[in-house]
Amino acid sequence: MNEAARAMLQSARVLTAFALAAGPLLAGAYPATRDDIARAEKQRLVSQLNALVPAPLYDNDLIADVRTVRAPDRLGRPASLVYRARKAGRPVAAIFEATAPDGYSGPIRLLVGVKADGSVAGVRVIAHKETPGLGDRIDLNISDWILRFAGKSLTAPDPARWAVKKDGGVFDQFSGATVTPRAVVKSVKNALLYFEQNRDALFAPDAATATP
After folding, report:
1. Quick one: 162 and 197 in the same domain?
2. Looking at the structure, do residues 18 and 109 belong to the same domain, yes or no?
3. Residues 139-190: pLDDT tens digits?
4. Apex CA 142: angle with CA 174 and CA 144, to 5°?
5. DSSP label of 177
6. Which of 5, 59, 94, 171 has a 20 to 30 A CA-CA distance from 178?
7. Quick one: 114 and 91 in the same domain?
8. Got the DSSP string for 61-128?
9. Quick one: pLDDT band at residue 212, thresholds 50, 70, 90?
């Protein structure tokens, strides 16, 4: 066996030994890594929910007090989660997973918080593919446009005014990107309509699923 062959054989033996030694270590590390990822994801979700309904306003576990609803006509997806905030057992707010299916560059995923009185607690965009510099102004990291929903309801303004100004409504559109805010306004309005029509069922403690 020449020198080059012996070197290759030695390298192969080293790599094999390393793989055999590292395998159990990696296998043992996976459960810990998986748990860390799950904890980080849970904390991120809690932070997103608390941005809409601050923690001092409720005393239940938002992540546990959740319901699946099937209202694609209102919430834009086959099944949506609704996180329910309560204080001393009384309803405080519901936070909907909603999707605006008609964004300019694709669906826009939202969290829509609705207070027990039917007014908007807040709205956040959690995923979108809208055009940078145009439609991406729905993202709070880009502009504060999304904050203007807070406090609005189906009576202030009335349903006919739940539209961008170009369509006769009260919400600003973006220069060169009307489709994106139009889609978000419509989605938030639909979440309010769903809440208005299903409030009691949403907060009922005994039913597993609410339907339109």
Report:
1. yes
2. no
3. 999 999 999 999 999 999 999 999 999 999 999 999 889 999 999 999 999 9
4. 70
5. B
6. 94
7. yes
8. -TTTSEEEE--HHHHSSSSEEEEEEEETTEEEEEEEEEEETT-TTS-EEEEEEEETTS-EEEEEEEE-
9. very low
Report the SS3 class of residue 86: strand
Six-digit token string for 72: 């694609």
Structure tokens at 51: 């941005």
φ, ψ (nearest 5 deg) of residue 52? -95, -40
And the tokens for 46? 């809690």
Q: Is 125 helix (H, G, I), strand (E, B) or coil?
A: strand
Tens-digit pLDDT profile for residues 91-137: 999 999 999 999 999 999 999 999 999 999 999 999 999 999 999 99
Rounded CA-CA distance 126/145 in Å is 14
Domain of 99?
Answer: 56-210
